[in-house]
Amino acid sequence: METSNKPENTNVQETPLFFSEALKQIVADFSLRSQEIIFTRYGVFNSHALTLEEIGKKYSITRERVRQVIREVLKKVKEKSGVPLFAQVQDKIVLAITENGGIMEKKQLLKVLGKGNASEEAAVCFFLECTDAVKGVEVKDELSFSYMLPLFDIEGWRAVKNAAVKVLVAEKKPLSVDEMFELLKAEVKIEKDVFQSYLEVSEEIKQNTFEKWGIAKWKEISPKGTREKSYLVLKEAGIPLHFRDIAKKIDQYHLNKKGTHPQTVHNELIKDKNFVLVGRGIYALVEWGYKKGTVKDVIEEILKKSSKPLNRDEILKKVLDIRHVKKSTIVINLNNYFSKTKEGVYSIKKS
To answer: How many alpha carbons lie under 13 Å from residue 130 in its C-beta half-sphere?
Structure first.
């Protein structure tokens, strides 16, 4: 019985290379060297783009000559704007940006059009420099480098962005896009998907790994060190966590490029006034109402705040609300350091 050597059909289809193939056809009548320089400079049909110096060495020409060749190719391609294939390229770019509210951050645009293919993204980069159908725009500390339609209302975008900043500052915490839009929909007068598109190009407002939006410099949005990353993890969890679990979650949410060492987390949090050790290796946030100190210190503070002596069960409940310790530990501290009446209630010992 004969067996077929043909691979099984797995129903996996490769993404068609529209942009890179379009570029290949559009520059087909240019010199072979010019084509190769463009392809290698942008990384089309290659794993990565080469530097001007690397290309210069390959062809034994100066970096300035490489720049000149690239400028000449860009100019010639622009002159082909009336070619049907070039028009198709422009239409795809314009459509993507139109569907995104008229403006799109460059990296996001490449991701949408390139569909994860490096060669496609490289070709799109090239065409973006050749087309007049969209224009690049960037405002330092306000707007990420983006492409927008020629008639896009940049001042309208700015008004929406400023309104979002105002809400976040007032709320003093990161918000989901739904929460923010609900607070602003009467004011901004745009659809929610367009509202999110406007947020995505902002430099002042960023999204964290938990899909919450906030002011870019907030530690809940752009955590820098182990302490800030631990804070974000605990804030999102909403409950105390062991330092080993905090380290795992830092890596799970890709907050660190390298693996996080649990002992590093412990060493950092034990020194920070924003965290409190509430059990054996378990940390909580002070802002949740947890207090630093020994179990004896916690009991003492509870009794000081109480208008009357408390029984054992009342004290156990109050301590366990802010400490992850065994009940027996609390009872031992009660018996060793506090006064107990015949009625079974405890108070601070008089010195």
So the answer is: 27
